[in-house]
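ok trying again, last paste got cut off:
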Amino acid sequence: MRNLTRRAALLGGGALLGGWATRRYGPNNPNLDGVTWIKPRNGEGVLNDASGLSETPVHKHIILKDDPGEALVSAIRSEIRLAAAEGRPVNVGAARHSMGGQAIPRDGHALTYDNGWIEPDTAAGLMQVHAGARWSQVIAALDPLGQGPKVMQSNNDFGVAATFCVNAHGWPVRLGPMGATVRSFDMVLPDGSLVTCSRSENPDLFGMTMGGYGLTGAIVRMEVETAANKRLVPEFKEMPSRQFGTEFVDALSDGTVKMAYGRLNVDRAHFFEEALMITYRAAEDQSDLPAAQGSGLVSKLASRVYRAQLGNERVKRLRWWTETDLGPAVSGGGVTRNSLINEPVVTLDDRNPDRTDILHEYFVSPDRFADFVEVCRRVIPGSYQEFLNVTLRFIDADPDSWLSYAPVPRIAAVLSLSQEMTARAEADMARMTRALIDGIIGIGGTYYLPYRPHARVAQMVRAYPRAAEFAAEKRTLDPRLVFRNNLWDSYLGTL
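nice, full thing came through this time. structure:
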C-alpha cells in the first residue's frame, strides 16, 4: 500500500467513509427560532479574516506587488503620509488568517503584500525573501535546491513576514518559533525611515517586531535561515494523556528526532484521556528525493472524515482508531520534510456558511501538561462548541520577542473547534475562552494572541508581562499611532 500523507493517515482514513453528513441549521432554517445569525458582508470598504467574524470597515485596501526595493518603500511611505494626514491607521497583511482583526486597520489604509520574490543562498543556508512571499512559494523555490524552510507554520498559505509578526511556530524540533530563524529584516518605520533590524542592530526593535503584529512598521525584506530537505520516517506511540509532556521531552532528548507532534482523543466519552505521539527521524536512504507534494486525493478524502466528526461521536471514535491503529499500519514509509509542511489550509475548509472554524492555542511547560489536560476536561465539556482536533507541538524558549509566549520551553496545544455563526455561539465561545485562559495562566502558561479577541485585558497583561512596556515603547516609536489594528485598539492601546 502506498504511503499516506501525514494528514491522510492522522486525520483519519477518509476513503473508508462514503459521505457521512451532519444536519445543518442556517439563517434560513426555521428550526432555530429566535437565533441571531451572523452574516458577513463582502464588498468594497470591508475586510474580514479567517474567522468570518471580524468584519471591519477600511478606508482603502491596496495590493502591493513591488519587489522589496525603492518602489515598494516609496509606496509604503506614500500610504503612511496620506493616512497620517487624515488621522487614519495603517496595517500590512498577507493572507489574513488571524481571527480577530489583528491584521486590519479600522477605517484605515490596509496594505496587502503579493510578491513571491525569493533569492536562495544554499551555501550559507539562507534566503533573502520579500516580506509578503507565501510559504508555498518558498517551498517551490527551495525544494529543487534540496532546501526548505527551517521553521514555518504547519500550513503553506501564510506570508513570511506575517509568520514573524505573529511569532508563529512550526513542528521541527527542538526549535523555537519561526522568528528564531530570522537573521535580519528591513522595515519602514512609522516616520517613513528605512532601517535594518537584527539581534545586533536595533535589537529592541527586532524583539518588538517579532510577535508585534505589524505595530512597529512595515517589513519589506527578510533574511531567513533554511534547512536541508530530508526523507523522514515516522514512529507512533500511544499513551495516557497525562504522561505526554514527559514522554514528549524524553523522545526529543537524543537529537535524532527532526519533526514531532502529538494528538489527543476528542470524543466526549473519553475526552483528552489518551495521547498519540508521532516522531520523525531521518531515513537511511536520502537519495532521489521526490518533489514536494501538496494535497493529494487521499488528503482531500481524509478531510471528509474530519468534517464528519461534527455532531457525530461515532466518527470521532473512528477517527481516533485511524490515527492510533490504521495510521501506524500504513504510514511506515518515508516522506520528505518539505512535503509534510506543504499543505494549504483549504484542505480542511468546511465550506459551510453557517459555521466557522475557530482555533485556540495554549502554551504550557511540559511538566504541567497533566494540569493542562485537567483544565481542558473541566472547562470544555461545559460548552456546546463542537470540538474537532488538538495538535501538540514542542516550542523551545524564545528570548527575543517582547510578547513571548515561550519564555521557557513549552508544549503548544492547538485546539480546533467548529462554531455556528450566531450571537449565542459567540457568547458561549467567549465564556469558554476566558475560563480556559484563567485555568492556563493559573498553571503558569499563556495563550496565543492572533485568535478571537475574547480575553479580558487583565488576562492579556497576566499572560504577557511586557505588554505595558511594549505599549509605552510603541507610543515613543509611533507617537501619531499610525500603525494600528484591533490588537492595539482592544488591548495594548488601553495600557
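cool. The domain at 6-22+229-462 is CATH 3.30.70.2520 (Alpha-Beta Plaits). Residues 1-31 have pLDDT under 50 and may be disordered.
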